[in-house]
Amino acid sequence: MMPTATTTQTSQHSEVMLNMTASASSPRTQRIPALDFSKGTLVLLMVLYHWVNYFTQLPSRYYDYLRFLTPSFIFLAGFMISHVYLSKYVAADPRLTKRLFTRGLKLIAVFIALNLARNLVVPILGTGGTVQHIPSLANLFSVFVSGDFPVLGGKLISFSILVPISYLLMLSGVLMVPYRHYRYTFHVACIVCLLFIVSLGLLGVRSYNLEFITFGLLGVFVGFMPITAITGLRKHPYGLAIAYLCYVIAITVWSVPFPLLVVGVSLTLIVIYLVGTGGNPAGDIRNEVILLGKYSLFGYISQIVILQILSVGSRRFDLGFAWLTVSFFTAFSLTIMSVEAIDRARTRFGAVERLYKAIFA
Length: 361
Known about the structure:
Layout: H1 5-24, H2 33-55, H3 69-88, H4 94-127, H5 137-146, E1 151-152, E2 155-156, H6 162-179, H7 185-202, H8 208-223, H9 228-231, H10 237-254, H11 258-277, H12 284-294, H13 296-316, H14 322-348, H15 350-360
Antiparallel strand pairs: 1-2
């Protein structure tokens, strides 16, 4: 007797749900040291990137070689959604949708609160006055839609990476609903975003937030793959080296259009991840980088606060060229110390633990 269409669809649906349930009970729920190492390395590279912004005036062309940083963070956020979150929750569990969407809303709130505090505190430290500025609709559009961050109150918007990460989390929370029934939901969403990017490019328009969200969805896609597919690339070091050299030559010639940025993010993260899988597991430096990776968002926020305070001092006092070197190593050290401090405080003080989870969990 031939099965009916309804029976076949029910069987397929059951198979999808069974695979999702199996994924949720897999052993991937534990932290991956190499993944934390990758995030920690990006935090340290971000210190360099932001330090250059605050203390030097290099031609914009030099920033092309660090352009991979922001999308790499967002790519890893997407990777964690599929590789970590879907290992802790059954896809049909409504708590997963709620957690992703709520965390995205929290990051938007943190972004707004930090910038309000910044526009009040930093001008007071630097000039002795406050900034009174009401953002225009055009500026709000640039911040929350296009991602082409404007100047508000004489100061650039800070902590900008929190906006696309929050959008990615909220979008993923919404997509979890159809994903319960169609396992390629995130793949389709990624393709749709890529088509929008191409369409906007043909019109001469660019949306950075859309590009960053697409990087996050690419991360989700990669997160569905077995981790051995990445670690297996360790067998091809020369191939990776040649590919990266070609990428550097390409961005030197053509700058960093979106397709090249995809290549750069992929290659950079592969190299960093593979470095994180090697070395001495008990090494102090490696463990310090891994700790930074566990607190990557906190480390990102703290380094910007630290650099802004240091930059205020440099504007008020002419400390000369030596201050450049001192400021970099000070920012580098204080970022690490801030992460160590929050890690210890979470262990010793229940209030700090609850506050941290309320903001970042």
